[in-house]
Amino acid sequence: DRDNFMTAEKALEYGLIDKIFTNR
């Protein structure tokens, strides 16, 4: 469960970074 949560958080963070990079 904890691993899943960490993955979800990382995925969200990566998604945000990806969006920012794409925006740039």
From TrEMBL:
Biological process per Gene Ontology, one example term: proteolysis
Entry annotated with the keyword Protease: yes
Keywords: Hydrolase, Protease
GO molecular function: peptidase activity
Coiled coil start-end: none
Pfam families: CLP_protease
Entries under InterPro entries matching the protein: ClpP/crotonase-like_dom_sf, ClpP/TepA
This protein's record includes keyword Hydrolase: yes
Protein name as catalogued: ATP-dependent Clp protease proteolytic subunit
Organism: Bacillus paranthracis
